[in-house]
Structures are given as structure tokens and as C-alpha cells.
Specification:
about 5% helix; ten-stranded mixed beta sheet; mainly beta
Length: about 325
């Protein structure tokens, strides 16, 4: 039997035994090589500087203080936003286009954003770098409105067995995090800051009043608590289906049901999304959430300097 025939026979045997070769399905723009460049001019009262914000999408440059809407059918949103508070235009940038190999990657970093206007505003806000499937409605009207501006997840009905991507980390050495919302002094939050990666599959329903709920179909969540020595390529994490509370490695804080996300209902209104339970292990999802973040404590919590780089995001079947 020659080598070519042997390969065909082996492939046939694998298929018959349920061991068919896996396939990868890239998430659109998940190779992080294409970016929209936004040129935004902040209000004169805070300096009038032109700021550059990057969004994951088709290669294009936008000039002007126009609210961003995902371009080129990009499913990705970022924590880079334009805000307008008390008539003052301000930007936040915590996601950057960075070089990687012959192309680009996404650099996500946690930092403190300052806004000071004599007699009007004097706030400092901690902002984590985040990219996620969904979109953001601009301009942001204030820190209390930030979460409501996010639209988490995209329609999706497949059942991947894993998610795969390349990453590297450079994490803060601080043993505790801080919480800084802009309206009070910084608070110390116990525990070291970690970068995170998350995948959630949901089956969503909307009632007659526009309320949206979901059952959890699939779950993957991982924290990174150490800096890497360069890039980790082809990191692969399995998706766990159904009720995973009794499975090895379950972490309720990371993987438990969520109730703080917002989505837009069929009428375009921002509403809370509450997960009400765990779906059957063979359920078909309606939506997919994927998120990467430079911090793990939620809104306004983290350690300045925490950074993760992400590239080549794809799903495995």
C-alpha cells in the first residue's frame, strides 16, 4: 500500500469512528489585521486635542465626531468610545492596533482616564481594555450609562467544540485591584487583577413587553494571572455544554449565570439580559458572546497597566 492510499484509508477509518478531522472557522475580522481609524476632536475646554480611536473592521479612516456604527458587517465592538457629558466631547482609548508578525493584533490595556474642567467636572475613571462580539451605541452620556450602551452578542446557531486564538500578557505586579468610578475616591478591591477570555452561547427569548431572557447553552471562561514570555499560539479551550455546575473546573464567579449584561430588543430598546437557567446539553443556541478583557473585576475595577494582546480568533468544530 503506497503512502497516499494509506492516508485515505486512515482518514476513512477516523470518520467511521467519529474521529473526523477538526475544522476551524475564523470569526470575521478575528485575524485583527483590519481596523477602522477614527479621528475625533475633543472639546476645546479640555484641550481640543485630536484623538485616534481604533475599531475592528474594514480598513478605513473616519474624521469627525460622528457616533460609530460597526462597519463592513464587523461583529466586534471595543471599549474605545466617544462620550459626550454635559456638552463636553471626550474619548477613551484602551484598545490599540499593534504590530504582530506581518500584520496586526489587538492590544487591550487597563488605564485611568482623567477629565477635568474647572468648576464643572473633575473625575478619574478606571477603564479596562475590552473587545467583544456586539456593538456600542455612542455617544456615551456618562459612567452610569456605559453598560446600557453595550449590546452583547451576535446571532449564532452553531455548536463549536472549542475556541482558539493567539495571546500574550503583561500583567501588573499589584496584589490588589482598585475601583475608580469617577464619583468617589479609589477603593481597594482584594485580589490580583487578571486578563480574561470568555465564550458564551445562549438561547434567547423576548416576551410581548420587549424583555429579553436567555438560557445558557455553552460556556468557556479562562483567567490569565501571569505574564507570558512572548506569544502563546493556538491556545485552544473547549466549550462545555449544558449545566456545568458539577463538572471539574467549574468556577461560579467566571462561569455562572449572568444578569448584568444589556442587549437591544426587537424594538431597538436597550434592556437587561438575564440568564434564567441552564439549557439542555444538546440545545441549539441563538446567540454567541465572545469577550477578551485586560481586567476581570467588572466595570471600573482593575490594575492600571494590565495588558493582553489577542490575535487570530477562530472557532473549532
Amino acid at each position: 500500500m503506497d503512502k497516499a492510499t494509506l492516508v485515505i484509508v486512515m482518514a476513512s477509518l477516523f470518520a467511521k469512528n467519529g474521529m473526523a478531522q477538526e475544522r476551524e472557522e475564523p470569526i470575521l475580522y478575528g485575524n485583527m489585521d483590519h481596523w477602522v481609524t477614527r479621528r475625533i476632536t475633543e472639546s476645546t475646554i479640555i484641550g481640543g486635542n485630536e484623538k485616534t480611536l481604533y475599531e475592528i473592521g474594514p480598513d478605513r479612516t473616519l474624521t469627525g465626531n460622528t457616533p460609530y456604527i460597526n462597519l463592513g458587517h464587523s461583529p466586534w465592538a471595543t471599549s474605545n468610545v466617544m462620550a459626550k457629558v454635559m456638552g463636553i466631547t471626550k474619548t477613551n482609548q484602551s484598545v490599540y492596533r499593534d504590530a504582530h508578525g506581518k500584520g496586526y493584533c489587538a492590544k487591550l490595556t487597563t488605564h485611568i482616564e482623567h477629565v477635568k474642567v474647572l468648576g464643572m467636572i473633575n473625575i478619574s475613571v478606571l477603564a479596562a481594555g475590552s473587545v467583544f462580539l456586539g456593538d456600542v451605541r455612542e455617544p456615551i452620556g456618562g459612567t452610569k450609562d456605559g453598560e446600557k450602551a453595550l449590546n452583547w452578542g451576535v446571532p449564532y446557531t452553531q455548536r463549536p467544540k472549542a475556541i482558539r486564538f493567539d495571546y500574550r500578557t503583561a500583567l501588573s505586579a499589584e496584589t490588589n485591584r482598585i475601583k475608580q468610578t469617577g464619583f468617589s475616591k479609589a477603593q481597594t478591591i482584594a485580589g490580583r487583577d487578571c486578563a480574561t477570555a470568555l465564550l458564551i452561547l445562549q438561547k434567547r427569548t423576548e416576551d410581548a413587553n420587549g424583555n429579553v431572557s436567555a438560557s445558557r447553552v455553552g460556556t468557556m471562561a479562562v483567567e490569565y494571572n501571569k505574564s507570558t514570555n512572548g506569544w502563546v499560539n493556538n491556545a485552544t479551550y473547549p466549550v462545555h455544554y449544558g449545566d456545568i455546575r458539577n463538572t471539574s473546573g467549574y468556577n461560579a464567579r467566571l462561569m455562572g449565570l449572568r444578569s448584568t449584561d444589556y442587549v437591544r430588543n426587537s424594538k431597538g430598546k436597550s434592556v437587561p439580559l438575564k440568564e434564567t437557567g441552564w439549557a439542555a446539553a444538546n440545545e441549539t443556541p441563538t446567540h454567541l458572546i465572545v469577550q477578551f478583557s485586560s481586567s476581570n473585576g467588572g466595570a471600573f475595577i482593575g490594575s492600571p497597566g494590565n495588558t493582553i494582546w489577542i490575535d487570530n480568533v477562530r472557532l473549532v468544530f
